[in-house]
């Protein structure tokens, strides 16, 4: 016989010629000389030296162990005193009871939804990360959840966790904010075949995400083309002059026409606007010529109006001078003063009137 001491926090398994005999706990024990004692730490997982099924035939040993069997497509989350320590794949495991407070959570990886009692903080734990797929939907987004390419439900903004397996899980996102679609440089023909270019925009937002993403392909491109067609139809019913007079109404016409089409795409058009109505090169030159001609005609009209007014003023002045000799003399003096400003020196003599002599001098010079 030999004496074996098992300390606190330890346990021993007794084997004879390789066969399991019994378990011994804390204290001093006498065993046969041919017996071998394997000592285990109760704070560590139990790794069986022989088949675990053989050891568990001892009910005393079985009562001292937590035995966990993890099947295929399962995980076992092992927490020690409230802290996640291990994640176990398929297999059979044993842990000593007594010193450590173990908690076990069995997870089914064959499904995608995480329904097990796992805290949200643990979902980002490094031990669990390889088994979880994370999908984040931003605050201004919504998304469609597609499992095996089949629509399941609409997801609001947030962070979603799913078990990672062979099942296909996808999301289709949509921006739920107010969006703006620019339609630039659209070349169109008016009713009288004048070529123009229009830059316009529309503001819209998605109101039915399922209709926008599932029932329509590239809803934004379809909205773009629909606005193009509405513009073409509207512009084609007016001549260039009529269109230029009604250009403020183009946006209202597009808005009223596009609302129904937009609803079929799952979007709501909020408003439309026209940035520019641009004439092409030749048409611009023609319009410039028309504008110049109009301005010249206006200038000629103003000039003739002023000449008429000036002639009428002269006629009135002449009538006044004819009736008033003093006024005539003053006008003569004003006339002489203006002439004198342009002549260096003038000499007059004799008894004749100065104004009369000046008239004679200018008459001779002419």
Overview of this protein structure:
- Helix 4 runs antiparallel to helix 6 (250-264).
- The strands form seven sheets. This protein has a three-stranded antiparallel sheet with strand order 3-2-5, with no helix packed on it.
- The protein has 366 residues and is an alpha+beta fold.
- The protein has nine helices and 19 strands.
- Strand 17 (179-189) and strand 18 (195-206) form a beta hairpin.
- The model has no long low-confidence stretch (mean pLDDT 85).
Element layout with pairings:
Blueprint: E1 2-6, E2 10-16, E3 19-24, E4 27-31, E5 35-41, E6 45-46, H1 52-55, H2 59-63, E7 65-70, E8 74-80, E9 83-88, E10 91-96, E11 102-108, E12 132-137, E13 141-147, E14 150-155, E15 158-163, E16 169-175, E17 179-189, E18 195-206, H3 209-213, H4 219-235, H5 240-245, H6 250-264, E19 267-279, H7 281-323, H8 325-340, H9 354-365
Antiparallel strand pairs: 1-4, 2-3, 2-5, 6-10, 7-10, 8-9, 8-11, 12-15, 13-14, 13-16, 17-18, 18-19
Helix pairs in contact: 4-6, 7-8
């Amino acid at each position: 016989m030999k004496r074996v001491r098992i300390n606190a926090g330890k346990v021993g398994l007794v084997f004879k010629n390789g066969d399991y005999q019994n378990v011994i706990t804390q204290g001093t024990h006498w065993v046969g000389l041919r017996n071998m004692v394997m000592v285990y730490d109760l704070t560590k997982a139990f790794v069986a030296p022989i088949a675990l099924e053989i050891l568990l035939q001892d009910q005393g040993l079985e009562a001292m162990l937590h035995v966990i069997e993890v099947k295929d497509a399962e995980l076992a989350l092992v927490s020690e005193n409230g802290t996640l320590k291990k994640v176990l794949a398929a297999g059979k495991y044993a842990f000593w009871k007594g010193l450590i407070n173990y908690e076990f959570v069995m997870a089914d990886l064959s499904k995608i939804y995480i329904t097990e009692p796992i805290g949200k903080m643990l979902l980002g734990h490094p031990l669990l990360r390889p088994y979880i797929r994370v999908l984040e939907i931003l605050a201004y987004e919504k998304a469609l959840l597609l499992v095996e390419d089949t629509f399941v439900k609409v997801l609001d903004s947030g962070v979603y966790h799913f078990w990672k397996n062979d099942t296909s899980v996808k999301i289709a996102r949509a921006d739920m904010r107010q969006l703006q679609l620019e339609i630039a440089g659209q070349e169109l023909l008016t009713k009288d075949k004048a070529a123009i270019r229009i830059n316009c925009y529309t503001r819209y937002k998605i109101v039915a995400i399922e209709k926008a993403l599932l029932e329509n392909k590239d809803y934004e491109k379809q909205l773009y083309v629909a606005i193009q067609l509405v513009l073409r139809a509207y512009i084609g019913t007016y001549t260039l002059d009529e269109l230029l007079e009604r250009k403020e109404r183009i946006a209202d016409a597009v808005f009223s026409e596009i609302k129904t089409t937009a609803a079929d795409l799952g979007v709501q058009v909020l408003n439309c606007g026209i940035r520019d109505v641009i004439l092409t090169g030749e048409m611009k030159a023609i319009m410039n010529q028309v504008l110049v001609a109009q301005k010249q005609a206006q200038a000629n009209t103003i000039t003739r109006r002023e000449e008429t007014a000036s002639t009428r003023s002269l006629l009135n002045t002449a009538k006044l001078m004819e009736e008033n000799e003093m006024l005539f003399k003053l006008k003569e003096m004003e006339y002489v003063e203006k002439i004198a400003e342009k002549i260096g020196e003038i000499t007059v003599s004799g008894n004749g009137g100065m104004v009369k002599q000046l008239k004679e001098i200018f008459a001779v010079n002419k």
